[in-house]
């Protein structure tokens, strides 16, 4: 193993990154540079620990990890499922908990039950396709959207949506409800397959340390 090799982390931008850095602090991994909210820097270094961190759009994190541009990624399970990259998922961090659900107005429940050919709007076409085609054996039309998915059934674009539900507030405020649950979600640690072999000591130590903190918090 090279003495001076940096381990590189790709963090999904936003809430997840903030939580991740808080967790890393608890195991002695800090990155002061990253705390400056006004910085336009894209990559941050901890010279002492030989670590690098960068922030990326969530769906790009598995891509950086698969190609080895990052050794380790922190990303939501939803993104891992949707992107389908060749990476190892090694740890559930236990935060960012939410659920992937099929939602819509109460009136759409019957359509789902009777396997009607319906339209499903979603930011997650692969997850939706897998759920309806492989698990439910139901033919549906999937419509890809990029955000504010709850709008779709309200304005008549689709009968239901396949989307993330956290508190349920967005659904409630828009007269929608959870009709079926697809799977639970949370933040996960993913690792490049080659890095896992080449850097197994450092990576396994990191996983062990993170596990200890998570178990204490449970
Ligand atoms: C997510 C998700 C729901 C909402 C669920 O959207 O797509 O719209 O959060 O949260 P709740 O159950 O606590 O109301 P996000 O805020 O990520 O924005 P988006 O509409 O751009 O997907």
UniProtKB/TrEMBL annotation:
GO biological process: L-histidine biosynthetic process
Record pathway: Amino-acid biosynthesis; L-histidine biosynthesis; L-histidine from 5-phospho-alpha-D-ribose 1-diphosphate: step 1/9
Major localization class: cytoplasm
EC code(s) of this entry: 2.4.2.17
Compartments, as annotated in UniProt: Cytoplasm
Gene Ontology molecular function: ATP binding; ATP phosphoribosyltransferase activity
Enzyme class, first EC level, given as a word: transferase
Role noted for this protein: Catalyzes the condensation of ATP and 5-phosphoribose 1-diphosphate to form N'-(5'-phosphoribosyl)-ATP (PR-ATP). Has a crucial role in the pathway because the rate of histidine biosynthesis seems to be controlled primarily by regulation of HisG enzymatic activity.
Domain notes from UniProt: Lacks the C-terminal regulatory region which is replaced by HisZ.
Record's subunit section: Heteromultimer composed of HisG and HisZ subunits.
Protein name in UniProt: ATP phosphoribosyltransferase
Source organism: Roseburia porci
